[in-house]
């Protein structure tokens, strides 16, 4: 342990009284008495009893100095550095996921630029996939590109934290509301918890990220030895496993396929005492299995009712009647440029020919499926040419 001492009074003063109170309660400190400006907390027994005086008014001129006094006692009691404890106090109302990548071709705390960019993008995709699986009425093997407003609103509240010492580390910090019932009517009350109340959406997503990653890990292990390897993934869909989640996990390893570890620390302000959350560590040989599972899930499952917009880049028809076109464009909710194959009825095909000749974009709605290296839009409807002069 590196023993770091805190001297920045501004950083100390930024910690609110409620954050410190929640931290002390979560770590077994007992409130002895309080007045308008301070609260006295103790821990231990007899000769091993420790006491801190917590300031309750952040506008006090010496507020930062008083926080420092508390922090130094905590460092002695917990035998940890002041910096680590201050970080935990800052995260007392946050569920924190840590992704530790272990690149073999970089120094400690470093990773290749392309691998790092992909890891950050995949981390967002992991959070989105878990949030969608919580919000959806029915779990899906392939999630739609367009996500509900509840999911997008949640993602806007999530924060990426600073890296940490050692391996290359990404951290996701999710604010969760403190538990103010079942023994927590006040941050300072000392009562027991008889039951776990219903968890808010934010906590449900935090647990779903962890549970889905664990389920994908178990499915990948099963697939390495089972001839029907995909069955393990389809059985785990109810636990949050999807093609989207598997692709996100693969991306966390970067282009080089680095092994990585996912861990979860729950907010001390909302404890969950009935769960054990050991880290989930993905080996290099897990990643190709996850990638293959994602591809097979996409091939077997249609992404329903998506909207595609783009340019017609290929036309094919034998004689008259219906024909096949290829559109280079994007799916609603996904900015990736993709080539999508579509079978159209005769009237729609004629409009596609016009759009191709006049270099106009088209839009169409249908069910997206993958077959080998190609992506098809089945059951096309509402095909139209986007004519700027008319639209």
From TrEMBL:
It comes from the Bacteria. This is Uncharacterized protein.
